[in-house]
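Incident log, structure service

09:12 report received: a user says their structure output differs between two submissions of the same chain.
09:20 pulled the input from the user's history:
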Amino acid sequence: MPREAWQPLLGAHRRRPGPGEAGAAAMLRGGRRGQLGGHGRATGPGRLLAWLMLASAGAAPCPDVCCPYGPSGLRCTRAGALDSLRHLRGAENLTELYIENQEHLQHLELRDLKGLGELRNLTVVRSGLHFVAPDAFHFTPRLSRLNLSFNALESLSWKTVQGLSLQELVLLGNPLNCSCALHWLLRWEEEGLGRVREQKLQCPRQGPLVLLSNTSCEVPRLKIQMPNASVDVGDDVVLQCQVEGRGLQQAGWSVAELEEAATAMQSGGLPSLVLTLANVTSDLNRKNVTCWAENDVGRAEVSVQVNVSFPASVQLHTAVEMHHWCIPFSVDGQPAPSLRWLFNGSVLNETSFIFTEFLEPAANETMRHGCLRLNQPTHVNNGNYTLLAANPSGQAAASVMASFMDNPFEFNPEDPIPGARATLNPSPTPWAPPGYRSRCPGRPGPLPAVILTTEAGVPGPGQKGARSSGGQLCADLRAPASPKCQES
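09:34 re-ran on a clean worker, output below:
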């Protein structure tokens, strides 16, 4: 663009921007506060380019109430054109929505943002907003930046932002009333959440928000009374929740996860809530029974667990070879059963080589899993393993056979001797049938015999265990036992 053509645009930089230009300027310098535009204030050539874009926007104003901005944004800056955000055209896939100068936009309700599930950035500034419903952002769970600066907000409920992962919450320029209803905002400031601390929020005629720390703002106080610490399967349980505190709004019991464990019936009202659990089952064990209450400061919860007694049970599984051998087991029961192992019917004394090891228990169940660990077991550990489990309600047992290795000392006497080679004597003698010869003294006559020659594992001539050089073993194949003699 020629330099002389810049002069009229630079003039727009020097004069005070109009309504539409003010909105664009706010976008350009407020992106880091959750508004549309960049993430910081432009400087140098970038700042000049930003003002050139601003001037162009002022020269060609949007003909509609709201106009597209970027690939998925919408900008509504025509003064006084909106009194509600319902039925915004082209709002289905919005990720950014910028609204300014809408004095008739005074409420933000649940149904106003319905259908904007992809919305990430919402800016409503310099408008007449004085109430935001606690559930206003129920349909925008991905909202990460919320700018409500320079409106007429005196308060904002903690429920409004509950469940949102807000990186930025801007409330500058609102006539905030420093009451207990904003105590949650003080916590955000103290913990550095949503960049609230940087805004140094003030309450007109009251001073800084930090002064709320000196007031007695508390969430409700709860206490559950339970008559019996333990019950049996099929019993009924009655619990009572006492609620105390200022400005109580709502209270109740959380029973969704108890549906399969008992029949839940609620009665009573503030400050005393009653919950009856009828026909309880063992599934109620390790389940939290929760009473909750809310006021303008926040939400409080308290939980108890009902112990339902039931007999012990046990399961054993086939041994598995790992770093150590493991005989897996599962035991259940309330109270937790005591365990005892038997090996071949006798008590198994655990040692550092054979011991019971439990896996990490699940937080919401009574069943426990583990292993009987065996470190390098041998054939002497082969046998029948029994696990006994017992508690005051009953006992159970399970057995499994385990074989870790074969016995290296077991052999059949008729099997060949390891390391020996048997051969028939090929040279007949005159007094013996052809093919046989006896070298056993005192055994005349034709004796079927074999000569066992020494090899690896059998003592040879001159070795330890040999009676003399040339010593040989001989066996009478017709005799009932062998060997029969040894020649020196």
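09:41 both user submissions now match this output. Likely a transient worker issue. Closing.
09:42 reviewer note: Residues 45-59 form the longest helix (15 residues). Confidence is low (pLDDT under 50) at residues 1-60, 428-432, 447-488.
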